[in-house]
């Protein structure tokens, strides 16, 4: 199977680039060579590589900036995936695309199922929802993997930001009334690999084996709970830390240009039942991510 990976320099893209070579001949592209806003260039690459599977890890992910760059966010997240999927439909290829908890408004009280009504509350969420719809409309075999609260041990994300701030400040003030499940890109990439190992060729994502799938670690926490766990792990491993207090604050005390859902928790029954993947507790995965960090990773 020939696999085209887009967004290979993003945090998820880097993790997928490690896993995907076990599942086929990987052709990985960064933005410079596969820009989702450049339809002609994309088509030229697709015609040349002629993939059996397109894995789209590229996205416009600057949630707050998207409020003032809505057209660009829509071009990358809403229109580009439709171009990919249109090519896939015309050439019998399959599409694996990543989407987000931000397609929901977060007003629901329980975990969100794949079939629950969507209603994004910000421009980023609206652009990601448009991408989902464009892929569905293309008629291509597809899996849209919605995930949440992605992080890694390196790069720029919540974990590395909290570690940096905890080394610089005595007090951190972190939002306590938004809930979700932190999900490491390493786990998500490995789980993606398991899905690909389960089926390939023309049956991949055919009919009931495709559609929308919620993929996240198990359990629930708040940003405050996640930050506290990061600081505990950092301290336990002897990395330098200055923070003595992690003060819980409501989201209303931390205004941002984009509104964010209060509830980002996914129901993971489809992942468990149909794909046979038992998501590990988020806290356990966090420890593993720390375990894998090189000793010098304190200076991030
Ligand atoms: N991060 C999260 O917490 C989170 C949560 C839920 C869902 N997701 C979804 O998970 C997927 C992976 O996210 P991530 O955290 O890995 O994001 P990321 O680290 O921001 O990576 C996205 C990659 O896409 C590239 N990109 C941006 N514009 C592009 C364009 N026009 N054409 C091609 N590539 C472009 C970026 O390049 P530049 O950096 O050079 O712009 C970057 O390398 C995305 O679909 C995202 O919506 C993420």
Write a structural description.
The chain is of the alpha/beta class and 300 residues long. The chain has a domain at 2-153 and 183-219 and 262-280: NAD(P)-binding Rossmann-like Domain (Rossmann fold, 3-Layer(aba) Sandwich), CATH 3.40.50.720. It is 37% helix and 17% strand. It is built from 9 helices and 12 strands. Strand 4 (94-100), helix 4 (123-138) and strand 5 (141-147) form a beta-alpha-beta unit. The radius of gyration is 19 Å and the shape is globular. 46% of the residues are buried. The structure holds NADP nicotinamide-adenine-dinucleotide phosphate. NADP nicotinamide-adenine-dinucleotide phosphate binds next to helix 1 and strand 4.
What's the short story on this structure?
This protein has helices at 11-19, 39-49, 70-91, 123-138, 158-168, 185-198, 223-236, 269-273, 282-291; strands at residues 2-6, 25-29, 53-56, 94-100, 141-147, 150-151, 171-175, 179-180, 183-184, 211-214, 221-222, 245-249. With 300 residues, it is an alpha/beta fold. The protein has a domain at 2-153 and 183-219 and 262-280: Rossmann fold, CATH 3.40.50.720.
N- to C-terminal distance: 37 Å
Residue ranges: pLDDT <50 for 5 or more in a row? none
**CATH architectural grouping of the domain at 2-153 and 183-219 and 262-280:** 3-Layer(aba) Sandwich
Strand and helix order: EHEHEHEHEEHEEEHEEHEHH
Task: Let me know the number of strands.
Answer: 12
At CATH level 3, the topology of the domain at 2-153 and 183-219 and 262-280 is Rossmann fold
Largest sheet: spatial strand order:
2-1-3-4-5-10
Q: What structural class results from the helix and strand content?
A: alpha/beta
Bound molecules: NADP nicotinamide-adenine-dinucleotide phosphate
The largest pleated sheet is described as:
6 strands, parallel
Query: Which CATH first-tier class of the domain at 2-153 and 183-219 and 262-280 would you pick?
Result: Alpha Beta
């Amino acid at each position: 199977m020939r696999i085209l990976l887009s967004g290979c320099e993003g945090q998820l893209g880097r993790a997928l680039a490690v896993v995907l070579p076990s599942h086929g001949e990987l052709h990985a592209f960064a933005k410079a060579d596969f820009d989702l806003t450049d339809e002609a260039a994309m088509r030229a690459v697709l015609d040349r590589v002629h993939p059996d599977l397109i894995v789209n890890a590229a996205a416009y992910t600057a949630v707050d900036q998207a409020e003032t760059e809505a057209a660009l966010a829509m071009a990358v997240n809403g229109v580009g995936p439709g171009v990919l999927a249109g090519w896939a439909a015309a050439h019998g290829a399959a599409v694996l695309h990543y989407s987000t908890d931000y397609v929901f408004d977060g007003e629901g009280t329980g975990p969100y199922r794949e079939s629950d009504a969507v209603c994004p509350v910000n421009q980023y969420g609206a652009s990601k929802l448009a991408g989902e719809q464009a892929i569905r409309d293309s008629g291509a075999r597809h899996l849209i993997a919605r995930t949440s609260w992605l992080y890694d041990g390196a790069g720029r994300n919540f974990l590395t930001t909290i570690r940096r701030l905890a080394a610089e400040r005595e007090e951190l003030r972190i939002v306590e009334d938004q809930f979700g499940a932190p999900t490491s890109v390493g786990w998500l990439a490995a789980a993606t690999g398991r899905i690909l190992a389960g089926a390939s060729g023309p049956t991949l994502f055919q009919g009931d084996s495709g559609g929308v799938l919620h993929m996240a670690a198990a359990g629930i926490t708040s940003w405050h709970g996640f930050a506290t766990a990061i600081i505990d792990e950092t301290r336990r491993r002897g990395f330098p830390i200055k923070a003595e207090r992690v003060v819980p604050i409501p989201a209303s005390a931390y205004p941002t240009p984009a509104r964010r859902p209060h509830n980002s928790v996914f129901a993971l029954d489809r992942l468990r039942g149909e794909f046979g993947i038992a998501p590990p507790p988020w806290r356990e995965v966090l420890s593993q991510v720390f375990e894998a960090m090189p000793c010098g990773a304190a200076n991030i």
